[in-house]
């Protein structure tokens, strides 16, 4: 292994490991979902399908997109709300009294930028304002895209089920207002919101030595943000 490759792996280990876990989990979901789908087909005296057809089906697409859109909604809201809202004692919060977008000096933009600052942070014009919100913009775009994909694949899957029961198809607009769509959507949202709330408050009192998501083990419970 070359020194350059070792350096790349060392500097990007967290991202690479989670991408690997993502790929393994997605493949595992596809395999398990494929067998479950064909098992249900046999139970209903319907023909089975190939693995390739299953992973391009609305059934698989809907189950994947339901999770993606809820995860990206969670992070989008967390990034945005932690600009203004605080949690005393949590490392997931800014220090008390520092809510808001902060000054140009604190954010090192415009005339306060250093030579190593990103180029768009140094301009102080519309490019800086755009770059200042680029993380939320991109995360929102991914959430909207995955939510739209969920709605399309879910709509297709829902109507396929209706056809199987000799019922008329619903229009896309009617499906978006249906209990089925919102039940599958909200069952994912509620779990994400609970997870974020749990992390914010449990990190006040509990510790994980060595983790940047935790305060130092000996930090007081009321130490907030980087105070810890």
Summarize the structure.
The chain is mainly alpha-helical and 228 residues long.
Please, could you describe this protein's structure?
The chain is mainly α and 228 residues long. It has two domains: 56 residues; 137 residues, no CATH class. It contains ten helices and no strands. Helix 4 packs antiparallel against helix 8.
Task: List the main descriptive attributes of the protein structure presented here.
228 residues; mainly alpha; 2 domains
Explain the layout of strands and helices:
Elements: H1 3-11, H2 13-43, H3 51-55, H4 58-84, H5 104-107, H6 119-123, H7 126-132, H8 134-164, H9 172-176, H10 179-205
Helix pairs in contact: 4-8, 4-10
Q: Average pLDDT value?
A: 92
Number of helices: 10
The major sheet is characterized as:
none
> How many beta strands in the DSSP annotation?
0
Q: Label the structural class.
A: mainly alpha
Low-confidence stretches: none
Question: Ends: how far apart?
Answer: 39 Å
> What percentage of the residues does DSSP assign to strands (E)?
under 5%
How do the helices and strands follow one another from N- to C-terminus? HHHHHHHHHH
